[in-house]
Design a protein that fits this description.
The complex is a heterodimer of chains A (1008) and B (517). In chain A, strand 5 and strand 6 form a beta hairpin. Chain A is built from 10 helices and 52 strands. In chain A, the strands form 12 sheets. Chain A has a 22-stranded antiparallel barrel. A 5-stranded mixed sheet of chain A has the order 10-15-16-13-14. With 1008 residues, chain A is mostly beta strands. Chain B is mainly α and 517 residues long. Chain B is built from 19 helices and 4 strands. Chains A and B meet through strand 26, strand 27, strand 28, strand 32 and strand 33 of A and helix 1, helix 2, helix 5 and helix 19 of B.
């Protein structure tokens, strides 16, 4: 271990004061805001902008405690000195700081599993709207895709690829309590996030660890006088791009050509007159975007305490409008948190209490029929927003769901309200120095209510509603968990070992109640409650209960010799109510080894290598992410038939499906090898992990024929493999007044389905609009959710080309084709283009993602830049235009379509009847490279000089401007290349995604 | 003391371990399981209703949809093309219309699996009904008889569409994947034996509140239907053996329906159509359709859950806009002009009620959006504004589909050579032509032509064509081929749909593909 404390001789001065400077031991930079306490008293202070402190003490005796987030706490005897300068040893790059592992802390250098960690500093810099975004690019092996730009919209988080066609979300634990999602958390309350990636790290969570575990630790108070921090910003959001769609003149030209190509009457014979009248026509994107949509966020945090008791209290408020559909897409969150820790003798205990209120109004973020962006992209530019009478205009050209999007925004009304309380108490009793028991009780109580109002409207096409209705739904989720862990640790000479054993119970119930009322007496969203309905015959209600429980025993053994050779074994025994009585329990084992080479004699004082560790492990995890009672032969009731002169409903009952009482967990088995290194006095570090993860027993519908007459049972019948590697590296250096810190992460993952034990050896995924079925697919030998479609081989230029496109028997493969149509490859050589010719035409998941972070400080200025890149992910664009309809608008790449004058080889001719299926067959024509590089975050801050801050009574005041998504480099033509998962087999399909916002914020950090 | 603090948690742990299995044992809170079902009459009623419910299934499983029985039958015949919005809109319906049907056609699979779902539910009820406690034994008899009636209906449709199907009278389990096909003759024998067996058990009078339940008259009428189809198609084409019932017995049952049932021919053909016509006196057995109340029925993820008539939404015109009479739909099954021309438009009152000519009626429509549109739509089940469901119109059109109605019984009795054949035939035609009625002879050829007109759009034509012989069917159907609609009915396929390929593979190749595929 490096020498951490540098002591200077005492000099004679005021007997009442101790002063000095605190610096980072590694870089030498001064540290601002280090907490200094005289042990056992309330006397304390913090360092100022120059890293200096001055503390008045009764006498120069006793122990000073130096604490700073991200650094190892130091205790120093005053021993009569006046000046005590301290170099704190950083926690973050290597070494002996403690990090969270399941049910405890471990010295980082002794950890044998693959764990990534980010800290409050990273989160503060990322200024994420959702906490998951802070993981993006900063933790290798974790793929985060924002599902859409809608405020409050979820993010798809995949740890080491996707191994299931069911729920692939990781397990989120907040201070040890499993929570369904983490959007209730205020990012500013978070102290650290650990991501457990390999099976040796996650096996302690057994049945829920297969998708990885994200452990979140919230901020704690530290001893010292009350500290007050305020952070706040306001910002404005705008679309970062507008998709290039046709304007009215080009639209009419293309439509006329489409109809003319089919030998039909053209729809705009009067095109010149129309252009004279309407010019460019309507830009529907401009009409639906909300420019300069505001976002504002305020957090106030108070913390402090004594050596034996501390607290942290915070409150926060955020309001964010979306950039689409003003007033109908927004998010509001209020939260409070109180954390406290206390110690008395052998007992430590503490509480974590938080309450959050959330209000979300949202629109369909990625829907090809009814989405706002879909309608704005499909409706013709010829139609104005308002007609001559000032009413919303309806389009005579668009049809079906493609209606005036501005009018539609006007009639959608829905709101989700959630009140969530998460609280816990823990106690830790040390029987001896070696033996302790930790017990916890946590509760997660959430009330969610959903309400919507549908007025009477007729927007043309088939979008109308003849009876007003109000929908109301109330949900209550109650979860409690208690865990009791006995821990024993001992040291015999150089042999260190610890043993942990415990059990845990978790119980979850969900009560719900809701109804629909029709024909309301007052027709507005404010009045849309069930009691306002009048149509009693149709009014309906529903209600029920969901139940699940999990019981677990677990144990972990750690051994190391002289902190050099480590060995760990984990065993978890889980029982879940989701499985039948005979298959309820399962065992999940893991073991791992580590070797810190840099502590060996031959490397100990190496001039360049400061740290070198090799580790490896193997383990098994489960996933119980299936519905409740799937194993039982349930009876479904359904009112789908009726009798009587005017038939009225009766209730029928039938078995839901053929039951499979032997249903089992999905099991994921993973092997991991990792290397951790640091060079040049830890200025440079480089970590590398390589893994192989196999998920077995995928839940599938069993292959039974339909003549059996009931839905097939769910069985365990598939395997998915994920292989990849991850890099985390960084460098920091100080040159004069300049401080530079760089970090780079990279993730490569290759996903392959290795078996699907149903008849067809494949699982069909999502389709697009009405014509393109099963665009996504899971099939043996291919990545999960790959795009399944026709391969094209260019465009027929002449009728001869059509006649010459034959199979080996000489049969013309596409007899209906004309010049300008796509050439499809007849893979099975049967002379026809059928589903059997469909192959893999794209993969929605990236091959490689990377994050690059730059911190640059110069005197009082700080600059942070974070770049994120995703490479090799494809996007299926067939859902961006309603090709099944005759007259939706086009993206302007259609201007390069094939015509006799413009023999394009990339874009087929335009046609309405489309006998060749250019626009109805899912082909690689609709696949684009979705790779992108984004300047996710950039911020420039200035910390005011102490002279000014002091006068305001503050210890620190930083002002900054920041921008998110300021720059995006992508070849993708749609609204946004970030398209998340809307189901396991519905990924990367663009149905006119709600795009991400470009946000500019201005904020301050103020400490008292 | 210290020891105690250790012992207590350990003891606690052990105690808890004993309770763990209780802790994990939950009973489904809102659903019954098979273990506590089939106990009471109410259970048996609900099980029976779930067999009836399958009559409204148009969507197979899982989600291979949009194959109402009448619409598919019409599209197979010489009365209608496929339609929709374009060739990409339900291409498998285009395949059926062209008679260029692939073995993976999802409509074939849907028709197949829906009917086997009904059979499974009927078999499950029949296997368990003996254990149900009834206060009145009569209820047991009636419920069992209706379940058997429905099973006959489902099997009859299966054997019509597919010819060679596996027959079983017990609920299958997951292991029963290797069920061989049964000789069609045996299936027909089963259907007739069942009907004869349940006629005494079924009720002669159905209370109005239960209208739509199967009566003895329904069974007798279906006996005629099945007998004729067997006589004219199954026997000569599939080589099915003779039935255990004589032609005169069958005719006797039909005459019984004509003379003694509460059913009769309505005076006015127009009174048969529209919501008000549901369960009219002419309806002997109808699939019930109504507007189910709430949003859960407007569920695109559970299309089979709806109670409405899907053929209605599917046959509506496109681009209607606001019209006092009509609502837009999806423009499937556009009528072939050959059927339009078969009507005497000036004298036959059925023409205006069976065929919608939007130009004539001045209904706005967008011909460009309607694939294969020839200017005419079926009208009997057109979506009409006065009946517009208050919510989710595609799911909730309240028009019953007649399975067998009195006019059909009259024409069947005429066809079977009743002594009153001419009278029965005239009754149907007199209603149609009114004052313009001119008698023609009740020959089989005339009867068949009359059936085409009387039942236009009701899904009978294709089966009547097959009864006229494969060559006639081929000639009439193929005559409708025009530019871009290459219809090619092949007699070697015997008019059957292919056994779904997935069923053949999933049965471990126990099922054998139909000839010609």
């Amino acid at each position: 271990m490096l020498l951490a404390v540098i002591l200077f001789g005492a000099t004679k001065a005021d007997a009442q004061t101790v002063r000095g400077t605190v610096v980072d031991d590694e870089t030498g930079e001064t540290l601002i805001g280090v907490n200094i306490m005289l042990h056992g008293t309330n006397i304390g202070t913090t360092t100022d902008i120059n890293g200096e402190y001055s503390l008045t003490v009764p006498e120069r005796e006793g122990t000073l405690v130096f604490r700073y987030v991200g650094f190892v706490t130091q205790r120093i005897e005053i021993d009569g000195r006046e000046e005590i300068n301290v170099a704190l040893e950083p926690d973050i790059i290597y070494g002996d700081e403690l990090i969270m592992v399941g049910y405890g802390l471990q010295q980082r250098s002794l950890v044998t599993g693959a764990i990534s960690r980010i800290e409050s500093r990273d989160i503060e810099q990322a200024a994420p709207l959702r906490l998951e975004q802070a993981l993006q690019g900063r933790t290798a092996g974790v793929t985060v895709i924002q599902n859409s730009g809608q405020p409050g919209s979820a993010a798809t988080v995949r740890i080491r690829g996707i191994g299931t066609t069911g729920n692939a979300e990781p397990l989120y634990l907040v201070d040890g309590m499993p929570v369904g999602g983490i959007d209730y958390l205020n990012p500013a309350d978070i102290a650290s996030i650990e991501v457990l990636k390999d099976a040796s790290a996650t096996a302690i969570y057994g049945a829920r660890g297969a998708n990885g575990v994200v452990m979140i630790t919230t901020q704690q108070g530290s001893p010292g006088p009350i500290q007050v921090n305020y952070t706040g910003y306001i910002g404005f959001q705008n679309p970062w791009k507008e998709t290039d769609l046709l304007n009215a003149p080009n639209y009419m030209k293309i439509m006329n050509e489409s109809y003319a190509n089919d030998g039909r009457r053209i729809p705009f014979p009067d095109i010149e007159d129309r252009i004279a009248a309407i010019g460019e026509g309507t830009n529907w994107q401009e009409e639906v975007f909300f420019y300069n949509a505001p976002v504002t966020d305020h957090t106030l945090r108070l913390s402090g305490g004594t050596e034996t008791s501390n607290y942290m209290a915070s409150m926060s408020y955020r309001q964010q409008d979306g950039i689409v559909a003003e007033g109908k897409s927004n998010f509001e969150r209020m939260s409070f948190r109180v954390n406290s820790n206390h110690q008395r003798g052998r007992l430590d205990y503490g509480t974590r209490l938080t309450y959050t209120r959330k209000t979300t109004r949202g629109i369909d973020p990625n829907e090809e029929f009814g989405g706002i962006m879909a309608r704005a992209s499909n409706i013709d530019p010829v139609t104005p927003v308002f007609d001559e009478e000032g009413n919303f205009a309806s389009s005579p050209f668009a049809s079906q769901e493609v209606v005036n999007p501005v009018a539609f925004i006007d009639v959608i009304n829905s709101e989700w309200n959630e009140d969530k309380f998460v609280g816990g108490v823990f106690g830790n009793f040390n029987f001896t120095d070696k033996l302790s028991l930790r017990s916890t009780l946590d509760i997660d109580l959430a009330y969610g209510s959903n309400r919507s109002f549908t007025p009477v409207y007729d927007l043309g096409g088939n979008v109308f509603n003849t009876t007003s209705s109000a929908f109301q739904e109330q949900n209550k989720w109650t979860t409690w968990q208690t865990s009791h862990v006995l821990r024993y640790q001992d040291q015999i000479e150089d042999h260190n070992f610890s043993i942990l054993g415990g059990f845990e119970l978790l119980d979850h119930r969900n009560e719900f109640l809701g109804g629909v009322a029709f024909d309301l007496t007052m027709e507005s969203f404010d009045n849309a409650w069930l009691s306002v309905g009048t149509d009693e015959e149709n009014q309906s209600n529903f209600g029920g209960l969901g139940l699940e429980s999990l019981a677990s025993y677990f144990s972990r053994v750690n051994y190391d010799y002289d902190n050099k050779y480590m060995l760990e074994g984990v065993l978890r025994f889980d029982g879940s109510s989701k499985f039948g009585p005979d298959d309820r329990w399962a065992v999940f084992p893991a073991f791992s080894l580590g070797w810190v080479l840099s502590r060996e004699a031959f490397l100990r004082d190496h001039p360049y290598i400061s740290y070198l560790k090799l580790r490896g492990g193997w383990g098994q995890n489960g996933s119980d992410n299936i519905g409740q009672f799937t194993y039982t032969p349930l009876i479904t009731t359904h009112s789908g038939y009726g009798f009587g002169m005017t038939p009225s409903l009766v209730t029928g009952a039938y078995p839901t499906q053929i039951a499979n009482p032997a249903l089992r967990w999905e099991t994921s088995e993973q092997a991991n090898i990792g290397l951790e290194t640091a060079f040049l006095d830890h200025r440079l570090y480089f970590n590398f992990d390589v893994y192989n993860k196999e998920t077995k027993g995928l839940l599938l519908a069993a292959p039974i024929p339909a003549f059996i007459g009931n839905a097939p049972p769910v069985v365990n019948g598939g395997t998915v493999r994920n292989r990849g590697f991850e890099i985390e590296s960084g460098f920091r250096q100080i040159v004069g007044d300049w401080r530079v810190s760089l970090s780079l992460t990279g993730t490569y993952n290759k996903n392959e389905v290795t078996s699907i034990e149903n008849d067809e050896g494949r699982l069909f995924g999502a389709g697009v609009s009405t014509a393109m079925d099963h665009v996504a697919m899971a099939m043996v030998g291919k990545p999960i959710a790959f795009f399944w479609g026709y391969e094209t081989a260019g465009i027929f230029q002449t009728m001869d080309d059509v006649q010459n496109h034959v199979n080996s028997e000489g049969e013309v493969i596409q007899p209906n084709a004309r010049p300008g149509d796509l050439i499809f490859v007849d893979h099975n050589d049967d002379g026809q283009i059928t589903d059997d010719d469909r192959v893999k035409i794209g993969n929605p998941y990236p091959d490689f993602t990377m994050g690059f972070n730059v911190d640059l400080d110069y005197k009082n200025w700080d600059l942070n830049m974070f770049w994120y890149g995703s490479f090799g992910n494809d996007i299926f664009t067939g859902g961006t235009r309603r090709h099944d309809l005759p007259m939706p608008n086009w993206k302007d790449d259609v201007l390069d379509r094939w015509t006799e004058e413009n023999p394009s080889t990339t874009h087929p001719r335009v046609t309405i009847s489309d006998p060749n299926g250019n626009y109805t067959r899912p082909s690689d024509f609709f696949v684009e490279d979705g790779s992108f590089v984004r300047l996710r975050n950039i911020s420039l801050g200035y910390t005011l000089p102490p002279g000014i801050t002091d006068r305001a009574g503050a210890s620190r005041l930083r002002v900054y401007v920041a921008a998110q998504n300021l720059l995006t480099f992508t070849g993708y033509s749609g609204h946004d290349p970030e398209i998340g998962a809307f189901g396991a087999l519905n990924v990367g399909i663009d149905r006119n995604i709600y795009p991400q916002a470009r946000t500019v914020t201005m904020g301050i950090n103020l400490d008292f | 003391m210290k020891r105690l603090t250790i012992i207590i948690p350990i003891l606690g742990l052990l105690l808890l371990a004993g309770c763990m299995d209780n802790f994990l044992d939950h009973k489904p809170p809102v659903q019954r399981t098979q273990d506590n079902f089939f106990l009471t009459k109410s259970d048996a009623d609900q099980a029976l209703y779930s067999v009836y419910e399958v009559l409204t299934f148009h969507h197979g499983r899982p989600n291979s949809g949009f194959h109402p029985f009448d619409l598919i039958s019409n599209v197979l015949s010489d009365d209608a093309y496929a339609g929709g919005s374009g060739p990409g809109d339900q291409p498998s319906i285009v395949e059926l219309n062209d008679h260029n049907i692939s073995v993976t056609n999802d409509k074939a699979l849907g028709l197949w699996s829906d009917r086997f779902t009904g059979i499974y539910r009927a078999n499950l009820l029949l296997e368990n009904i003996d254990g149900v406690m009834f206060e009145n034994e009569q209820d047991r008899t009636i419920i069992a008889a209706e379940a058997r009636f429905l099973r006959v209906l489902y099997y009859f449709e299966l054997v019509k569409f597919f010819g060679n199907v596996p027959l079983f009278e017990r609920p299958l389990v997951a292991e029963d994947i290797r069920m061989p096909q049964t000789d069609p003759g045996e299936v027909y024998e089963f259907l007739v034996t069942e009907l004869l067996d349940i006629i005494p058990d079924l009720r002669d009078v159905i209370p109005p509140a239960q209208a739509g339940r199967a009566s003895s008259w329904a069974a007798k009428s279906m006996l005629g239907r099945i007998y004729l189809y067997h006589r004219d198609y199954a026997q000569p084409v599939l080589g099915a053996g003779p039935l255990p019932v004589s032609e005169s017995d069958v005719l006797g049952h039909l005459e019984d329906v004509i003379n003694n049932s509460p059913h009769r021919l309505l005076d006015d053909f127009s009174a048969l159509w529209g919501r008000a016509a549901n369960n009219n006196a002419e309806a002997i057995f109808s699939v019930q359709h109504g507007a189910a109340a709430l949003s859960s029925f407007g569920d695109w993820g559970f299309l089979n859950g709806s109670f409405g008539n899907w053929a209605t939404t599917m046959s509506g015109l496109r681009g209607v806009g606001f019209h006092p009479q009509y609502i837009a739909g999806w423009s499937f099954q556009p009528v072939i002009p050959d059927l339009v021309e078969a009507f005497d438009q000036d004298t036959d009152s059925r023409y205006f009620l069976s065929i919608l000519d939007p130009v004539e009626e001045n209904v706005r429509h967008n011909a460009d959006e309607m694939y294969q549109w020839q200017g005419y739509a079926f009208k009997k089940f057109q979506p009409r504004r006065p009946d517009l469901p208050s919510v989710n119109d595609p799911f909730n059109w309240p028009y019953n589909r007649p399975v067998v109605r009195f006019a059909d019984v009259l024409l069947m009795a005429a066809e079977l050579g009743s002594t009153n054949a001419q009278d029965y035939f005239d009754q149907v035609r007199m209603r149609a032509y009114g004052d313009d009625f001119v008698q023609i002879t009740a020959t089989r050829e005339n009867i068949m032509e009359e059936r085409r007109l009387e039942f236009a759009g009701e899904g009978h034509r294709y089966w009547d064509l097959l009864r006229m012989g494969l060559d006639t069917a081929a000639q009439k159907i193929n005559a409708q081929a025009i530019q871009d609609i290459p219809i090619n009915f092949r007699t070697e396929r015997l008019g059957l749909l292919p056994i779904p390929q997935s069923e053949i593979s999933l049965s471990d190749n126990t099922l054998v593909q139909n000839p010609g595929y």
